[in-house]
Design goal:
Blueprint (H helix, E strand, L loop, with lengths): L14 E8 L2 E8 L2 H7 L5 H4 L6 E3 L4 E2 L2 H8 L4 H11 L1 E3 L2 H22 E2 L9 H10 L10 H12 L6 E2 L2 E8 H11 L5 E7 L2 E8 L4 H11 L5 E6 L11
Antiparallel strand pairs: 1-2, 1-5, 3-4, 6-7, 8-10, 8-11, 9-10
Helix pairs in contact: 5-6, 5-7, 8-9
Length: 249
Amino acid sequence: MSIFTPTNQIRLTNVAVVRMKKGGKRFEIACYKNKVMSWRSGAEKDLDEVLQTHSVFVNVSKGQVAKKDDLTNAFETDDLTEICKQILTKGELQVSDKERQSQLETMFRDIATTVAEKCVNPETKRPYTVNLIERAMKDIHYSVKANKSTKQQALEVIRQLKETMEIQRAHMRLRLMLPAKEAKRLKEKLKPLLQVVESEDFDENLEMVCLVDPGCFREIDELIRCETKGRGSLEVLSLRDVEEGDEKL
């Protein structure tokens, strides 16, 4: 005995649905659980790891595939992969209240972990524990945004926490090598970007070891490369200048 399955129906299991309304119609795509947020944050770049199928549905749970004409009218293309990308980026992830709460709690913890990894108490140079950062986030009533990456939110949390506690991004320790001819002029240009100059040694070149804010790293790197035509160099000695032991409040 054969079982007839209509050609416009596809059955899927263990699925995360992303829904989008466009042109007065509802469209859905079927994704693997936990992969939608990875795609949106940029952690996952392989579309096949995110989509269960490149089909676009009217209703995933019933397996009803969208009509080609409806897709073309709404998205102005019949390229299913392109349409899937649009829905994946701009659509609304359908999750149960329990799943949503679990997801927000995980993101809250991830944000606190990122902040703890990046920051120190500026007076003691000691890092804060993740639990301490979590408590501080609760004290300022930080609300996690499910559609923003944890990295973006961690930077926002750091800005907000600065208003209530002693916290700053841990400095990077760099070694700068500047050619003798450009050394004096370049040093003046670099000065505003350096937090602390730990040592200077002038031989054939000027060698400086300094602490900088991580946000200035790219600007310093570009300045040295452009001004010295590639003859100068920059070396990262440590990503975080921290003291041993955790900070206690």
